[in-house]
Design brief:
By secondary structure, this protein is α/β, with parallel strands linked by helices. Helices cover 28% and strands 21% of the residues. The strands form 6 sheets. Strands 1, 2, 9, 10, 11, 12 and 23 form a 7-stranded mixed beta sheet that branches. The longest helix is centred in the C-terminal third of the chain and has 25 residues. The protein is globular. The two termini are 29 Å apart. Helix 1 packs parallel to helix 7, helix 1 packs parallel to helix 14 and helix 5 packs across helix 14.
Length: 540
């Protein structure tokens, strides 16, 4: 690509939203688009296999055969790690679970002053993105780029999980993305015929042949270029050299909840005193840039399993690994097609509450911590997720060096309500595990090994052994108040030619996994951009 080349649109970040933007903005052929991605290509096999067993697992066809001397010494089994940033972002390495959240999540966004973001307005974009195995309906679409499928194989543990939920008074729900969210059922996953359907596969791959779309990988954006209060381009590092590209129309940040605010701050947009302290010239004092960080915090119960097998058993047996690999290759079925959590329940911890505040997932394997080696014993995990945290954190640059990671301070469990809700969710999960027929599959509790009944003890356990969902959002918050970073059309407030279109614009965290909502944001953002481009052309 020629140094200083001009494009109508420059999209920074080829993650879930960025791939959507690259496809939709280039689809008509009328607009030239440059997509910048700091990571590499997506041609490695592991990216396209589902394997949603955890955020850090890689190629299953390597995993099944992986064994080392270190495994013998530690008594654990290792699963190799993927190399990092890739086309498709988190959609290429996530747990595959397709959850949109509650209709009230989006109505809340609208009520916070974001016209056009209520549930009725965003539902068409969810439907537009989907190619759902269940067919078209009021809530689902077919023919879209993102394939959404039912879990290929039921499992006795999941069926026992549902029966235990009913015994505890919770309803079943065949579709969390339909008329209501509350209840228990199997998750749908983002895959097509047993293979992962990431945003790179569904959106970017079909667009790569377009002459008006340029994709630059290994291109690390370092700052946005401005002429006054208008963004005019992007400077980036590629192959050790500093390069730049010019935007005739807009610069669009789709770098995610950590990197989008970081790039704005590096470019002089952010909390002025903090930028000055790090030697960054201030263009605009925008204290909301990097504020409002939210993520889902989790607690978990780990059990040794009796009466059926789990992924632990498969990985622990060379014969079963081979059998499972062949099953996947020949039939596209089995453990290799499962998401990170196979079954889920959405519950309200307070009786009579109008909407769930906790997500309880069943995971068909067990580890000491997320992304770690699997236990040698047959095991499963019950994961408890706080859906609507009040706690807020920050993402702030630590220096003017664009290659230095920002300081991420999430402040999990920093409000009494967050603590109380998650503790209540853990008690519900414990009650489910003790109810028939799930109880008959529990050989013993592994973690916590001893029953906890005191709220303070639960909270201590959660702080010591809890984890996160890798669902960061909110750091370039959408709104119409002084603390908002973008307006309802996702334009950076006070600037022309600059938008943010990714999970960082969420005012509040959605009640569930964030990949489907991020793809929806990409779809809606693309329409907003094209509408404004058409209006500008008509006006000229």
């Amino acid at each position: 690509m020629q140094q200083g080349a001009e494009f109508d649109f420059i999209v920074v970040g080829a993650g879930s939203a960025g791939c959507v933007l690259a496809n939709r903005l280039s689809a008509s052929g009328r607009h030239s688009v440059l997509l910048l991605e700091a990571g590499g290509e997506d041609n490695d096999l592991w990216i396209h296999i589902p394997l949603g067993y955890g955020k850090h697992f890689s190629n299953p066809e390597v995993n099944w055969l992986y064994h080392s001397e270190a495994d013998e010494k530690t008594g654990s089994r290792s699963i190799p790690q993927p190399r990092g940033k890739v086309l498709g972002g988190s959609s290429s390495i996530n747990g595959l679970v397709y959850i949109r959240g509650q209709r009230e999540d989006y109505d809340d966004w609208r009520d916070l002053g974001n016209a056009g973001w209520g549930y009725a307005e965003v539902l068409p974009y969810f439907r537009k993105s989907e190619d759902n195995q269940r067919g078209a309906s009021e809530y689902h679409g077919v023919g879209g780029p993102l394939s959404v499928s039912d879990t290929a194989d039921p499992h006795p543990l999941c069926d026992a999980f549902f029966a235990a939920a009913e015994a505890c008074g919770y309803p079943l729900n065949p579709d969390f993305n339909g008329a209501r969210q509350a209840g228990f059922g199997y998750n749908q996953v983002t895959q097509r015929r047993g293979r992962r359907c990431s945003a790179a596969v569904g959106y970017l791959r079909p667009a790569r042949g377009r002459s008006n779309l340029s994709v630059a990988t290994g291109a690390h954006a370092t700052r946005i270029l401005f002429s006054g209060r208008r963004a005019t381009g992007v400077e980036y590092l590629r192959g050790g050299a500093t390069q730049s590209a010019r935007a005739r129309g807009e610069v669009i940040l789709a770098a995610g909840a950590f990197n989008s605010p970081q790039l704005l701050q590096l470019s002089g947009l952010g909390p002025a005193s903090h930028l000055r302290a790090h030697g960054i010239p201030v263009i605009a004092d925008l204290p909301g840039v990097g504020a409002n960080l939210q993520d889902h915090y989790n607690g978990r119960l780990v059990f040794e399993c009796a009466g059926t097998s789990t992924l632990n058993d498969v990985v622990g047996s060379p014969l079963r690994k081979l059998r499972e690999g062949l099953r996947y290759l020949l039939l596209r079925r089995g453990y290799l097609t499962l998401g990170a959590s196979t079954a889920t329940g959405f519950v309200a911890t307070e009786p009579g509450a109008s909407r769930p505040d906790t997500q309880i997932g069943l995971v068909l394997y067990s580890t000491e911590k997320a992304g770690d080696t699997l236990h040698r014993f047959s095991g499963f995990t019950v994961l408890v997720r706080l859906l609507k945290p009040e706690s807020r954190g920050t993402v702030l640059v630590k220096s003017a060096d664009p290659l230095a990671a920002p300081a991420i301070r999430p402040n999990y469990l920093s409000t009494p309500r967050d603590c109380a809700v998650l503790v209540a969710g853990m008690k519900i999960a414990q009650r489910l595990a003790g109810a028939e027929p799930l109880r008959r599959y529990v050989a013993r509790a592994h973690e916590p090994a001893q029953s906890i009944t005191d709220d303070d003890a639960w909270l201590h356990y959660l702080r010591a052994r809890g984890g996160i969902s890798y669902h960061p959002v909110g750091t370039c918050r959408m709104g119409n108040d002084a603390g908002a970073v973008v307006d309802a059309r996702l334009r950076v407030r006070g600037f022309g030619g600059l938008r943010v279109v990714d999970a960082s614009i969420m005012p509040t965290l959605v009640s569930g996994n964030t990949n489907a909502p991020t793809i929806m944001i990409g779809e809606k953002g693309a329409d907003l951009i094209l509408e404004d481009a058409a209006s500008s052309l008509a006006a000229s």
